[in-house]
Design brief:
By secondary structure, the protein is α/β, with parallel strands linked by helices. The protein has 14 helices and 12 strands. It has 2 domains: 235 residues, Aspartate Aminotransferase, domain 2, CATH 3.40.640.10; 124 residues, Aspartate Aminotransferase, domain 1. The model has no long low-confidence stretch (mean pLDDT 97). The structure holds pyridoxal-5'-phosphate.
Length: 385
Amino acid sequence: MASYRIPFNKPSLLGNELNYMAEAARLHHISGDGHYTKRCQALLEEALQVPKVLLTPSGTHALELIALLLDVREGDEVIVPSFTFVSTANAFVLRGARPVFADIRPDTLNLDETHLERLITPRTRAIVVVHYAGVGCEMEAILEIAGRRGVAVVEDNAHGLLGAYKGKPLGTFGCLAALSFHETKNITCGEGGALIINDPQYIERAEIIREKGTDRARFFRGEVDKYTWVDVGSSYLLSDLLAAFLYAQLEVREQIQAKRRRIWEYYAEHLREWAEAHGVRLPYVPPHCQQSYHLFYLLMPSPEERQALIAHLKARGILSVFHYQPLHLSEMGRRFGGHPGQCPVTEDVSERLLRLPFYNSMTEEELAAVVSALKEFDGWVRRTS
Ligand SMILES: *Cc1c(COP(=O)(O)O)cnc(C)c1O
């Protein structure tokens, strides 16, 4: 493994993580649904103004829980963007559904809502949107189409916690939404996630599925005198040790977001002219979207220049990385009929996109070093125009 002077991501402690973990241990409740789980859930419910949040072991598990709650089954179709993490599709494929891949908008790299009408069939059960880089999808149009066609909307909000669309928090638009607290996300506990329930009809069953298919949550609230097996289920609880770590980060979320905003704006300001001079496109955030400052990308003019720039930065000890490979062209995606040309924007963007180092403890010196290394790049392809 090469070691980098400036890594791509570096999870950092912000103060109380270890104190709270020790406190969780002292409270003698380190399994799921302990003191810190309840505090995290209450904090998120309050911050997002939603009826219910349940912590899960990962964002992937939250998506799996969503597929179970929607009763997705063999023969169903679920529309997902091709430009996303595998779990967006896998959670539904696990239940026997067929993923239907949608292309993305060239500006925000979010699911292109203008393709939805054409992709919806009588078998479509859900549309799963991903707010790429924490910039909101066109939720107004998406909800209108889905509502008219009787299809559920789910948000994979792994990138977008604390972002908003037209003033409303991301993760509060779909009937259900997933969050991730993986170490690559803005707020983390290593591995972790959450299910956001916006439609209260799902609350009781979510508690049951998450508790191995038992009505244990009802029992603890004193609503039944014993608990028993009542539905399908699994174990989708986060250890309270990790919830304690997570709570310490959630408490200082404003500080984290302010820091990440400074990093994002530093890149945007210092790279604007350089990008324009070389035909590099910087991230686009529509005026009605309040982004979550999850990542900063460059869209290089060509795949060759992207590869050359990654190598150039690597030689200077800086790790930059590409992002999602089109799901429809993956080995699994092809089994569902995915083929070249199906999602042309995804195919193009995935070969030219590069993400710059971005982490909460990133210093101004590190940012300046990345920017000056970028400006030293001379591997541009000559173009005659
Ligand atoms: C991180 C991520 C997830 C879920 O990740 P976990 O590692 O399971 O928490 C899902 N979708 C997207 C788009 C992600 O970026």
